Amino acid sequence: MLFQLFFLSFFWLIIFFAALYGFSQIISLIGIYHSSEVEKFPQRLWEIGKCNGALSLPLIFSLNLLLQTSLPVIDEKCGFYLSLPITALSLMVIRIQANPSKSLKPIHCQYYTDHQDRLNTVALHKERILSFVFAFIISSIIILLLLFCYDALMQLPFDRLKMPPLTGIEIAESFSAYLLSLGVATLFGELILWIRPPIIQNSIKPH
Fold first, then answer.
1. Structural contact between residues 197 and 27, judged by C-beta atoms closer than 8 angstroms
2. Per-residue pLDDT of the chain in tens (207 residues, 90 and over written 9)
3. If you placed Cys at 185, which of 36, 92, 161, 177 could pair as Cys (CB 3.0 to 4.6 Å)?
4. CA 26 to chain centre
5. Distances (CA, A) of 174 to 64, 81, 166, 167
6. CA–CA separation, 89 vs 5, rounded Å?
7. How many structural domains compose the chain?
8. Residue 96 in contact with residue 188, Cβ under 8 Å?
9. What is the DSSP letter of 163?
10. Phi and psi for 186 in degrees, rounded to 5?
11. What 3-state class would DSSP assign to 38?
12. If 0-12 CB within 10 Å is exposed, 13-18 middle and 19+ buried, where does residue 12 land?
């Protein structure tokens, strides 16, 4: 028991530290919009596409976990299929909301006359959106780690993910739908931001 506790504590330390650091970096990138002078549209699309790809996996798990813990009986395949487009659309909304344009600026900007105060209000809005996403993903990871550690300590099989049994054709269809929905949502999100540029833009060229 003591050896298992030591091993699981070490496992928790490594995974939790890596998850906090890694997802914090990725989510922070979602809230950064480089001006067209330092980052061309194809490059921006590629960089955000990579971020969305990394964030989509924990989001899909988070949505599945939310459905499984909220409903007494659930069709696992239906829940899994539903999570794919919802994840892609959610990432698009997060990207747009985290980089508000003049038409999406916080309504309480009207109470400030100073330009810097308005920028601070927009920055606070950005941080609030990103903090929500970070908390949602990390909460799901904590639940997963806690369940895994408990099952490992009790020497029980770990089957908490409950991914639906899919045939080879269904896996290929799901993967194609996943890539298509993620790609289209990323493209639409960047086009919207290109048409309606964010109020706060970073003019420092990314290294």
1. no
2. 777 888 888 888 999 999 999 999 999 989 899 888 888 889 999 999 999 999 998 888 878 777 777 777 767 777 778 888 899 999 999 999 999 888 877 777 777 777 788 888 888 888 889 999 899 888 888 888 888 888 777 777 665 555 667 777 878 888 888 899 999 999 999 999 999 988 888 877 666
3. 92
4. 8
5. 15, 7, 9, 10
6. 40
7. 1
8. no
9. P
10. -65, -45
11. coil
12. middle
27: nearest Cα among 106, 114, 111, 91: 91
Asked if residue 202 belongs to a domain, the reply is no
Residue 176 lies in a domain: yes
Domain that includes residue 13, residue range: 2-96+138-193
pLDDT at res. 184: 93
pTM: 0.84
Cα first-last separation, the chain: 48
Q: How many CB atoms lie within 10 A of CB 203?
A: 9
